[in-house]
Amino acid sequence: MDSVEYLDLLLKALLLAGVYAAMAVGMTVIYGVMKIVNLAHAGFLMLGAYFALEMFQRFHVDPILGSIIALPVFFLFGMAVHWLLVRWLPKSDTPTLASLLLMFGFWLVLQNIAYLVWGNEDQSILTPLTLSSVQFGQISIPKVNLVVFAAAVFCMVVLQIVFHRSWFGRSMRALIQNPYAAQIVGVDDQKTARLTFGLGTAFAGFAGGLLGMLFSFSPDFGRPFLLRSFVIIVLGGLESVSGVALGAVLLAILETFGINVPLPVYWHGWSFHYLPPSYQQVIPFALLVVVLLILPKGLSSLFSRKWKAA
User: Fold this and answer.
1) What is the pLDDT of residues 189-239, one digit of tens each?
2) Mean pLDDT for the chain overall
3) What's the whole-model pTM score?
């Protein structure tokens, strides 16, 4: 492979990382504030893809606009889920078995409802952007990847502004840093938790719509992306919203290069072989194991150690 091919792979990985970051940030904020590993995240991603598809097919709404419309729709849906189900869970500083079972069961409910409504056939969102591309010298980038990346980055920037400049963002950060101290100074933990769950669900639906433009999907669509989301938030640090971007970039680069670059293999002598595309899903598992063994607090812990040492 020459330098142009490596640059092409790097650009594709970075474009994919933008969507991965938007996909994982919802799971991060829910865990940070409520200490819940949201296994229903997979179901919200799947519903976001079907939401964008229905808006496109029935109302001829562009899938990008449909994904943006999904933000307020899924925000209200997430708040309703919190009010009906999540608020009854016992409070804890660590994930509990009750929360894991509740979220896993709700995911299965959403999945089976999707099977009843849409069947088990794979669906795709095809637009004029899907088959067109932009040339950068010898590198060709599909327009749909560029548009999806721009939408993901824009919403991530808006989230950072909300996170740092609004009372809701300050309340979230206070509960993430020290929930007991936050309540002492007057933070309404129930209201903030409800809004946070709505925000996390909104970003899951939004990311699901974007992913639906890049991949075919079915009611089981969210399963592999749930694992990727979990790997990304572990990489970035379970409570670090800014660390999500770093984790998304690392995972996207490893996945992209892992199946497109020949790797050295020793079998009666050294030789180079490509990994089969089916092995792409092995990479997140392997990365998760390595990170949990070496950096259980994520990559953000490296920066915190550096600042403490300074």
Assistant:
1) 999 999 999 999 999 999 999 999 999 999 999 999 998 998 998 888 766
2) 87
3) 0.91
Q: What stretch of H or E contains 140?
A: strand 139-142
The whole domain housing 165 covers 3-309
The Cα 301–Cα 273 span in angstroms is 35
* Tokens coding 108: 């299965």
How far CA 113 is from CA of 124, 205, 212, 301, in Å, comes to 19, 16, 18, 41
Q: For the chain, how many structural domains are there in total? A: 1
Q: Which tokens go with 150?
A: 């721009």
Please answer whether residues 272 and 263 qualify as being in contact, where contact means their C-beta atoms are separated by less than 8 angstroms: yes
Would you call 229 helix, strand, or coil by DSSP? Answer: helix
Provide the residue type at 302 as one letter.
L
As given in the structure block, the two tokens for residue 25 are 């940030």
The number of residues making up the chain comes to 310
Q: For 272-298, what is each residue's pLDDT tens digit?
A: 667 777 777 788 888 888 888 887 777
Question: What band does 77 get if pLDDT is binned at 50, 70 and 90?
Answer: very high
Phi-psi domain of 257 (left: phi exceeds 0; alpha: psi -120 through 50; beta: other): alpha
User: Whose CA is closest to 170, among 154, 151, 186?
Assistant: 186
Higher-confidence residue: 271 or 18?
A: 18
Counting residues of the chain whose pLDDT is more than 70, the rounded percentage is 91
Q: How big is the CA angle at 89 (ends 75 and 21), to the nearest 5 degrees?
A: 40
Task: Return the CATH number at 219.
Answer: 1.10.3470
Give the DSSP H/E element, type plus range, for residue 55.
helix 41-59
CB atoms within 10 A of CB 230: 20
Q: CB count, 10 Å around CB of 70?
A: 28
Q: Which pLDDT tens digit goes with each residue over 88-109?
A: 998 887 888 899 999 999 999 9
